[in-house]
Design a protein that fits this description.
- There is one protein chain.
- With 144 residues, the chain is an all-alpha fold.
- The protein has one domain.
- 83% of the residues lie in helices and 0% in strands.
- The chain has 5 helices and no strands.
- Helix 1 runs parallel beside helix 3 and helix 2 runs antiparallel to helix 3.
């Protein structure tokens, strides 16, 4: 791995943490649906930058993908609470997260096969999934 790509890869973790701090500070004033939508759009934007500009966009990919992923971890807990309330929260969260956990377990195999078949263009698969999640989040309406 070249030095630039290694540095870009090392930016993802700090970018996730910075986004979580931002979520805790500034974004907590907004409905969790706003944060979830921002998180969903971050990876497709990062993927487009990477495909269009190639390796020089690795830094842009890191600073877009990282915060989206960081905020997503918070949104997965706060959004169901905001939309459905506290009654039955644990059970509801389990039902909502079960399909995601199964797909998350299959993701390395599926993405590895996509990389083998399509090369760099496999990132369009992940970008498409991000766009689909954004569309689903745009269909949701605030309850409070």
């Amino acid at each position: 791995m070249t030095g630039g790509r290694l540095v870009a890869r090392r930016l993802i973790g700090p970018a996730q943490v910075a986004a979580r701090v931002l979520e805790f500070g500034l974004l907590r004033r907004f409905h969790p649906l706003i944060s979830a939508r921002a998180a969903a759009v971050a990876h497709p934007m990062a993927a487009v930058a990477l495909v269009i500009f190639g390796a020089p966009a690795a830094y842009a990919f890191a600073v877009l993908h990282g915060p989206g992923n960081g905020i997503l971890t918070i949104a997965k807990g706060t959004l169901p609470l905001a939309l459905f309330g506290a009654a039955g929260y644990g059970r509801r969260l389990g039902w909502l997260n079960a399909p995601a956990r199964i797909l998350q377990a299959a993701a390395p195999l599926v993405f590895g096969a996509a990389l083998t078949a399509w090369g760099l263009h496999a990132i369009w698969l992940t970008a498409g999934i991000g766009v689909a999640s954004l569309i689903a989040l745009l269909a949701l309406r605030r309850t409070t």
